[in-house]
User: Which sequence fits this backbone?
């Protein structure tokens, strides 16, 4: 971590008082116990905190930083869980333990769910808008819903922190993304903002619980180190999508684990095998590159992405997106001719 | 005709009395009524100490006259009403047709008595929001243009709060989405609350923008515009019929039609049609059974790119991205 980076630490509570930690450390202004305004020398913009209902609060951050900072969420033993949605314009470096994990626009893994016992560090980009929302949820509330879905016994095991860690990284689902997009257009000072934020938080909470399959039922305790080691390898993969799959052995070595342990823990966090995760991200990147008009030739793109056969690439692409890359390309080319 | 005298309030203590007048009873915040009068759900959900929402999803099998005579006047009712059938609201000797294709949004001070007559065979879908006046006042005070009037708006000697409107298309979509939710789903209350806050936030935007004030518009003109809206929705898959043909349907000059359509719906006729088209296309997309090309053809978009462009414009992401992570 760079030495000139200013570091701030805090931890969440369901009630507004946690904001005082940020206000003091950042020398920021707190308005109505809800809005934090950044001082000019650190950045512009602010954040909005709201209690939505008993057991559920929401924290929305819309800031553009002028200096490098790292914001550290210190682990606590409170019975609180968090869901994190990153909608920033640029990537935000999100560090867990020692590994830098990128969330946001480029890597597209914009969502994380975790307990408050896991430390988190955010290093927002300078001069770019950081826009993220966090749901802060009481364990009991989550447990009540999970009980209705999966039964009492499973729910209790899932939320037993002495033997299990609930944690996952994922893409933001579409319905949540639509809501966040529409919230992003609304200013904090708009008279309808609070109502809209409450509505959004409740919908996001519902969608999160519908993703119940991602709350895995294979229980074991993850250490902070294990999570950090796995995210180190996902980060490596996301940064090297043009290369070939590194191989389980090398990835496990990078994580300092045996291959079998690596596979199990990887799946617990990313809900996919390392190989499938890598190929999926590769195809999403291919899709983005085609849409950006960066490539006008499928064979070039296939080679660039490390596929030796363009035909095979086209086949898996079509499997994922329902249309072949050449169809997508034709559409882009047509559009370019028109404009 | 069955007559039901009742009251509403933010507190739920009115439910027992209303239930007994409908020969029914209260269970889990639901008013259960014998099937020969009406079938469906009447459910009240307390949202916070200042806000309660009451959901009506029922079919009437008898003509009923509801006479609202509130005992408390510390709240307002905000009614989002998508009833299809014959429903009339009577207040101060003025009868207003209400429901999906008529006035479908009303803000009414609790101190005003009002009658609501609904005929057998009508299908009612309505969300009523009961909000403490002090909370509404806080919301109004947050609107810069209304801040200085807040005191006189809430002064019972000077003003009575009443407003009849058409809901925006965003509000309509919120209700329409929520309507698909199964009452038995454990997340029902969560989505109900989310929808109610969404409707309220939309209503605030509507007040701020002051796009729609029906009281100043001639009743007959309103009905003519709504008939056109209904026609557009029924033919949502066809190409846009053109201003000249729909304005003659409304018996208006094109200039008058355009001005009134915008005033009543908040959108131009073309934008209203296109937004509704893309909204319906999104619903078809969500079924997962059709390709974007098929949907574009079904709804008479120029081509798939046209649909994609419009979808992105409205929802901020492409249909493909939407589908990939659904």
Assistant:
């Amino acid at each position: 971590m760079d030495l000139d980076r200013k570091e701030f630490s805090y931890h969440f509570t369901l009630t507004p008082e946690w904001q005082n930690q940020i206000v003091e450390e950042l020398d920021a202004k707190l308005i109505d116990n809800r809005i934090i305004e950044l001082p000019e020398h650190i950045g512009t913009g602010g954040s909005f905190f709201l209690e939505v209902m008993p057991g559920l609060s929401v924290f929305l951050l819309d800031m553009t930083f002028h200096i490098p900072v790292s914001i550290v969420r210190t682990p606590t033993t409170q019975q609180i869980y968090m869901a994190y949605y990153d909608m920033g314009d640029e990537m935000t470096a999100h560090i867990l333990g020692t590994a830098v994990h990128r969330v946001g626009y480029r890597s597209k893994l914009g969502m994380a769910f975790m307990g408050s016992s896991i430390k988190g560090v955010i290093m927002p980009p300078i001069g770019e808008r950081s826009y993220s929302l966090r749901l802060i949820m009481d364990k009991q509330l989550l447990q009540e819903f999970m009980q209705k879905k999966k039964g009492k016994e499973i729910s209790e095991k899932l939320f037993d922190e002495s033997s299990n860690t609930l944690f996952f990284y994922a893409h933001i689902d579409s319905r949540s993304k639509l809501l966040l997009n529409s919230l992003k257009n609304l200013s904090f000072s708009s008279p309808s903002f609070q109502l809209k934020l409450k509505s959004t938080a409740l919908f996001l909470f519902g969608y999160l619980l519908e993703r119940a399959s991602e709350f895995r039922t294979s229980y074991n305790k993850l250490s902070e180190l294990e999570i950090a080691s796995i995210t180190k390898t996902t980060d490596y993969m996301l940064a090297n999508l043009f290369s070939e799959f590194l191989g389980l052995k090398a990835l496990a070595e990078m994580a300092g684990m045996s291959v079998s342990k690596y596979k199990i823990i990887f799946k617990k966090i990313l809900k996919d095998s390392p190989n499938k995760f890598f190929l999926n991200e590769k195809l999403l990147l291919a899709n983005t590159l085609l849409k950006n008009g960066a490539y006008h030739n499928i064979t070039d793109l296939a080679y660039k992405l490390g596929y030796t056969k363009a035909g095979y690439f086209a086949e898996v692409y079509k499997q994922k997106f329902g249309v072949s890359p050449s169809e997508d390309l034709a559409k882009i080319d047509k559009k370019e001719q028109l404009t | 005709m069955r007559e039901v005298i009742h009251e509403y309030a933010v507190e739920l203590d009115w439910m027992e009395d209303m239930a007994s007048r409908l020969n029914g009873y209260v269970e889990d915040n639901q008013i259960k009524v014998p099937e020969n009068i009406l079938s469906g759900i009447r459910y009240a959900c307390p949202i916070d100490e200042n806000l309660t929402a009451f959901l009506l999803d029922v079919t009437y099998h008898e003509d009923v006259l509801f006479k609202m005579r509130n005992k408390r006047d510390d709240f307002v009712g905000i009614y989002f009403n998508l009833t299809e059938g014959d429903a009339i609201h009577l207040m101060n000797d003025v009868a207003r047709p209400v429901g999906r294709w008529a006035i479908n949004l009303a803000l009414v001070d609790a101190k005003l008595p009002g009658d609501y007559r609904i005929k057998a065979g009508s299908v009612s879908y309505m969300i009523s929001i009961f909000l403490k006046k002090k909370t509404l006042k806080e919301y109004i005070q947050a609107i810069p243009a209304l801040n200085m009037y807040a005191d006189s708006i809430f002064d019972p000697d000077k003003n009575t709060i009443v407003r009849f409107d058409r809901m925006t298309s965003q509000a309509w979509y919120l209700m329409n989405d929520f309507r698909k939710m199964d009452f038995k789903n454990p997340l029902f209350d969560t989505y109900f609350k989310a929808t109610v806050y969404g409707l309220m936030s939309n209503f605030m935007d509507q007040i701020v923008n002051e796009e729609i004030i029906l009281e100043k518009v001639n009743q007959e003109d309103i009905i003519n515009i709504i008939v056109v809206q209904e026609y557009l929705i029924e033919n949502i898959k066809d190409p846009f019929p053109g201003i000249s043909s729909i304005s003659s349907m409304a018996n208006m000059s094109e200039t008058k039609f355009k001005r009134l359509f915008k005033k009543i719906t908040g959108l131009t006729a073309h934008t209203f049609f296109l937004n509704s088209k893309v909204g319906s296309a999104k619903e078809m997309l969500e079924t997962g059974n059709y390709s974007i090309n098929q949907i574009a053809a079904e709804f008479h978009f120029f081509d798939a790119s046209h649909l994609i462009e419009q979808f992105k414009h409205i929802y901020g992401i492409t249909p493909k991205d939407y589908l990939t992570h659904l």
Remarks:
- The CA atoms of residues 226 and 285 of chain A lie 27 Å apart.
